[in-house]
Design a protein that fits this description.
Pfam family, one: DUF8056
Shape: globular
Number of strands: 2
Protein name: DUF8056 domain-containing protein
Number of domains: 1
InterPro entries: DUF8056
Domain DUF8056: 18-182
Organism: Natronosalvus hydrolyticus
Largest sheet: 2 strands, antiparallel
Strand order of the largest sheet: 1-2
Radius of gyration: 20 Å
Distance between the termini: 25 Å
Helix content: 55-70%
């Protein structure tokens, strides 16, 4: 084992002697190592969200391949664009867990506040995905919303669809900024 905590085959080894391999092993490792309940909740919710979003994008690619099977290269480019969008959505969902696992693996800090901050930004990113989808709902599918959130939803419906991109982009940048500022 090297000084950085890596074993001979290049995998990371935690303080409990168990190593994790890749993204799938990172979630249980980070869950075990963190003392923050908020982060542990995010590890579960974020992991499930990442799986569901990945499945949704895989199904979208399958549908697009079926629809563009006998077409030009321009339509084939749309397949790559959907994969690219999927990566842009899934990576920020995974980022808080990856950052926390890396921090615990390298033993650069055991600050519960860091874990909480990243979990909070992860939850904020998930909420921003939902908020970002609302302006993209076509007018014929918009429904009248009553209650406490009615005016907010109505306001979001009235925004241009491109504004919906700003919410997740800003939340993803915030994840990185919080990580950098909290180190």
């Amino acid at each position: 084992m090297s000084e950085t905590g890596d074993t001979a085959d290049g995998t990371a080894e935690g303080e409990d002697g168990r190593s994790y391999r890749g993204v799938l092993g990172t979630f249980p490792y980070a869950f075990r190592q963190s003392r923050s309940r908020l982060f542990r909740a995010y590890a579960i919710v974020g992991g499930l969200a990442a799986v569901l979003v990945t499945i949704a994008f895989i199904l979208a690619v399958i549908v697009i391949i079926g629809a563009t099977a006998d077409t030009t290269a321009t339509l084939a480019l749309s397949r790559s664009f959907v994969v690219f969008l999927g990566i842009l959505v899934v990576v920020p969902i995974l980022a808080p867990v990856l950052f926390v696992a890396r921090r615990h693996r390298r033993k650069t800090g055991d600050d519960v506040r860091y874990d909480r901050r990243l979990a909070a930004t992860g939850f904020l990113f998930l909420a921003s995905l939902y908020l970002g989808l609302i302006p993209t709902v076509p007018a014929e599918h918009q429904s009248e919303v009553d209650g406490m959130f009615g005016p907010v939803i109505t306001f979001l419906y009235e925004l241009p669809a491109t504004v919906g991109l700003a919410f997740p982009i800003l939340a993803a940048v915030l994840i990185y900024v919080v990580h950098r500022q909290s180190r």
